């Protein structure tokens, strides 16, 4: 399997797969035409790319994911933190929030989340 990073088109395609899996490849072509405006050949090209990356499989014309939405989100987030913020999670959060203020509920939820990931 690859590092879990995907292009914008692959992300949209994976979302269709996640919402509909297991999905027949013919139905996947229909969904991609309706939702993305893709031709049959585009859908199969993208499908083969994701198969080569080890992210989906197509067994007997049934397409299923081999990677979860959360795995892709974690990989993409880690890449942004490492490449844009030199690995600084606090720097990323500060930039993400910008001038926005947190509600008490949001702050409490973030404290609980951080406590759950605390070392030691």
Summary of the model, kept short:
With 120 residues, the chain is mainly alpha-helical. Helix content is 64%, strand content 8%. The protein has a domain of 62 residues: Arc Repressor Mutant, subunit A (Orthogonal Bundle).
CATH class of the domain at 8-69: Mainly Alpha
Question: How far is the first residue's CA from the last residue's CA?
Answer: 31 Å
Radius of gyration: 18 Å
**Quick one: overall form?**
elongated
Description:
With 120 residues, the protein is mainly alpha-helical. It has a domain of 62 residues: Arc Repressor Mutant, subunit A (Orthogonal Bundle), CATH 1.10.10.10. The chain is 64% helix and 8% strand. A hairpin with a 2-residue loop joins β2 and β3.
Supply database-style keywords:
120 residues, mainly alpha, Arc Repressor Mutant, subunit A, 3-stranded antiparallel beta sheet, 6 helices, 64% helix
